[in-house]
Structure formats: structure tokens, C-alpha cells
User: What shape does this take?
Amino acid sequence: MSERLRIIGGGLAGTEAAWQAAKRGGEVDLYEMRPRVTTPAHQSEELAELVCSNSLRSDSMENASGLLKEEMRRLDSLILRCADETRVPAGIALAVDREKFSQKVTESIEKNPRITLHREEISSLDETHPTIVATGPLTSPALSAEIARLTQGKYLYFYDAISPILHGESIDMGTAFMGSRYGKGMEDGGEGDYINIGLRQEEYEDFHHDLLHGEKVALREFEKPVYFEGCLPLEEMASRGKETLAFGPMKPVGIEHPETGETYHAVIQLRREDLTGEYFSMVGFQTRLKYPEQKRIFQKLPGLGKARFLRYGSLHRNTYINAPRLMRNTLQLKRYPNLFMAGQLTGVEGYLESAATGLLAGIYASQHLGGEAIQTAPKTTSFGALTNYIIETQTKNFQPMNINFGLFPPFQGRVPRKERKKRVTERSLQDLDPWREHVQAPPE
Ligand SMILES: Cc1cc2nc3c(=O)[nH]c(=O)nc-3n(C[C@H](O)[C@H](O)[C@H](O)COP(=O)(O)OP(=O)(O)OC[C@H]3O[C@@H](n4cnc5c(N)ncnc54)[C@H](O)[C@@H]3O)c2cc1C
Assistant: This one.
């Protein structure tokens, strides 16, 4: 490789990207602004600091995050190697001693002769120089302004407003019903796109009372200015008036029960979240209710008595771009092919997913610098499924996502639900191998 690769941000994604590029012969300049400038959540000057929980989630292959870990281990991930070496007992979860973990990552980067670590804040980007931007959910304000410039402003977001996602099979369809508002798209006998839950007046009033009194996560000081009127949390809307929700995300107009013709005081709609139709998100239900409270309150709703949650709702500070509009599946910005994005900035959610996109960006940028065509990970692997989600999602409100089995492409023909995870895992690891051979680093 001729040119040096710049990587901005020494977090989970940036360190992994630097490691992968250096393995492939690249000369890397890694820029980390701490300790000179810090973020509102980081506490130390170590690289790859875990800002909250010390868990990288399940390590079981029964779980999509276990599969992603296995793929990362097969690509010699620095983050996974350091996590395995500093593991603490936590059942099937991969939890780490956070200080030892970050120290190990820092040492590995500092000792690598191909990586030069600069403790410096970067506030402008040179679109002509090969660069990976991995500055995370708390990207410094100066660089955020620069990213906004390069992404036409309106495609850069500053917080997550996440609605809960439920397993469709856990919803009682004897009570809930399919349909679309005003029967849109159902003219030729279709069942409609949404699962609907109708609430009678008394049920709505109970729900409103629960929202007002349920326990909420306190906002940190730096998260207070994040609301904007288009995306208020459920409980905030509830506090503005008893009927605010019934005129907002729970408006009942144009919806009636397809068999009984009943209309409702308020309706909750759930939208399909994945290609296989296994998961449904509660539309407009971003919330700061604590997770056990979400379970307690939402399970009281008609049809949701046994609802299982794939993801709970949340609302927190997070800088990320509208990847489906701006990025290619090579993690390059469409307009600026020398600029690669990695980590939480791309719209993935979580330590593990951030590191995984860092790993991919390190490989892809190495291929780009070497003048090769970029060979992307197959869509059937968890690397590919995760990238596919952030590139292909067709929603108006693009929201960050963790890896999960619903992101993988469906099989041709019917696969019994019980066998699906096993089949996805087998296919993923089988398809990973030829790609891995192709992008393998040369032996040291
Ligand atoms: C408060 C909070 C709590 C979270 N808790 C969890 C959790 O418990 N579990 C989980 O899985 N995920 C959690 N996340 C989400 C996410 O997984 C982590 O933030 C993760 O660290 C993201 O990885 P990253 O590499 O994209 O960013 P980071 O790990 O944050 O790395 C980015 C790095 O870039 C540096 N930087 C920023 N701007 C500049 C600049 N201009 N120049 C140079 N350096 C710069 C930062 O100092 C930082 O070291 C949390 C996020 C936040 C904000």
C-alpha cells in the first residue's frame, strides 16, 4: 500500500479497524482526542473504553450476537481477542474486566509498529485522503459539524429514539388484527401491513395512567436537550394531556376490526421490522420507561399478555448518519469514496456491532488503498446481514439496530421456525470461509 490510512476515533470500531488494516500491511495514523478533549461519557484515557455495561452480550451460538462473535474471532478480531483474555464469569454472556480490557487494546495498538497513535482532536476531513471515521455516538461537536457538511446536514442525527420490537409470534392474533389505515393496500384482498391493537376508552385511560406513573430512566445532563417535537417519548406526550396520544401515534381514525367492524378510542400499530416478518416494532412508542416497566405496562395491553421483546424502547444521545441514503455496502460514503464510516456512526447499535463494522472498514479500506476491488462480506453472514440492514433499510426514520436473526436473508422454501437459527448459523459460517480466504491477511 502506498498511502497511509487515517483513522479517526480510538474506540471499539477505530482500534479494530487500525488492527485489521495494519495486519494487511497498511501504515496507519490513528487519532484519538482523549485525554486532551473528552466526551461526556468517557472516564479514562484508554482506547476502546466501555462507557456503560461491561458486557459484549451472549456468547452462545443460539444467539445472533454469539454468531457475530464467532465470525469476528475467525477474522482475528483485536476486540474479541482482548475480551476473551479479560473475561469475567457472567454465564453465557461475554463480560470483561473493563479496565484490563481497555488497557490490553491500548497496549496492542501502541506496540504495533505499523500504527502511529496521535492524541489529537480532528475537526475537519480531507475527502481526498483515505480515512475511516469512527468517532462514535459522542463525536466531538467540531467534527459533527464537519460530518453534517459532508452529509448534507439533514442526514446526521444526534439521538436514538427507539421503539420496542416484539416477536410477532408472541402477539395474540385472536385479539390483535392485521390491517392498514383506511384499508390502504388492502383493496385486492390483502390483509394490510400492520398489526393493530384497539383500545376501548377504559383501557386507554388505564394505559395513560400507567405511562404517567411508570418508572423512567433519568436523563443524563448531556442528554437533556435531545428531544425534538417530532419524536417525543411516549410518556412525555402522555404528560401533555390525556388525549394527546389518541391524537398522535395512537390515533384510531381509519381503523376498524375486520370481522366485527368495531372502532376504538385509540389504536397501537406495529410495523414489520424484518424481511421474514418475525419481528414487529410499536410505531411511535419511543420511551424512557425502564425495561421491566415496559414489560409490565405493555403486557397489560390487549393481545400482548405474552409478548416477548426483541428490543426495548429507549431514547439517548447518539450521533449517527442516515446510512441507507449516504453509504455504500463497502462502508464508503457514496459521494466521497475515500471516506469510510465505522462504528455507531453508521447506525449499528452496540459495542460488538461497532467493533464488527470497524473490522470490515479496516479490511475494505486496505483493499481500496491496494487498488483492489472491494470484496464485501456475503449477505448471509452476520457481517453481511448487519451491513445490509444499515444500507438497505427503507424507513423514513432510520434507527440503529443490534445484530439479530431477523436481519438474515430468508431461505428459499419453508424452514420450520425451530430450525431456522441453526440453519442461519450453518449457512453463515459456511459462506464466511471463502470470503475470509479472499480477504485473509498475509502471514506475518
Ligand atoms: C452513554 C452511552 C452508553 C452506552 N452503553 C452501551 C452499553 O452498555 N452496551 C453497548 O453495547 N453499547 C452501548 N452504547 C453504544 C455503543 O455501543 C458504544 O458507544 C460504543 O462504544 C460505540 O463504539 P464506537 O467505536 O462507534 O465509538 P466509541 O467507542 O465512543 O469511540 C469513539 C472514539 O472517538 C473519539 N473521538 C470523538 N470525536 C473525536 C474527534 N473529533 N477526534 C478524535 N477522536 C474523537 C472518542 O473520544 C472515542 O474514544 C452506549 C452509548 C452511549 C453514548
About this structure: The two ends are 16 Å apart (CA to CA). The CA atoms of residues 266 and 413 lie 38 Å apart. The chain has a mean pLDDT of 92.
